[in-house]
Write a structure and sequence with these properties.
Helices cover 12% and strands 48% of the residues. The chain is mainly beta and 206 residues long. It has a single domain (21-199), classed as Jelly Rolls (Sandwich). The strands form two sheets. It has a nine-stranded antiparallel β-sheet with strand order 4-1-6-7-10-13-14-17-18, with helices on one face. A hairpin with a 4-residue loop joins strand 6 (63-68) and strand 7. The longest helix has 11 residues, at 2-12.
Length: 206
Amino acid sequence: MRFILIIIVATLVPWTSTAADLAGRVTRTKGSATALAEGGERRLAPGQYVFTGDVLSTGPEARLEVRLRDDSVLTLGEKSRLAVGDLDLPDAGNRGALVLDVIGGIFSAASGIIARRGGTMDVRTPVATIGIRGTTAWGGPIDGVYQFALLDGRRIDIANDAGRVSITTPGHGTTVPGPDVAPTPPTAWRQPKLDLARDSVAFDRP
């Protein structure tokens, strides 16, 4: 029996991962979701672990939700890819830091303990870096152009080499056409556009 349990654990956890690499746990999935690491690709299901260095991917009409170790919540929409970067929990000597790298697609991210204690939670995308400060942010392409919105909470900062804006009003967003183009001034999104963003990461929508 012990030998069987060892085999089962080995199939669920990449052999290169350690407790120090643990980033979080999958809380919900819909459709196909995988994690790619040095040990290979593995399918994700609720209860499975996610590690720093993992590249998370979703298939068509799929969703993936992960609760990270600082209680922040990451959600991917369909056909999305994101790499789990550094996760440094707060302690007596620092406020903590979390870095996520969006390779492509749609995401939402709700901050946890790191942001609440004044640490940094940054989501790096192909066009800009999103600093999440005690809030829930959404990002993804709309009509082929990356856009970002503050869904709730107090503030997100969007910056690239061309400029920087801060969004402090829920329901407002910005457009970033490319990494060398400054984010547009924040504007209020109409309800259909907000619904489109929320639906893109919702588990009860296609």
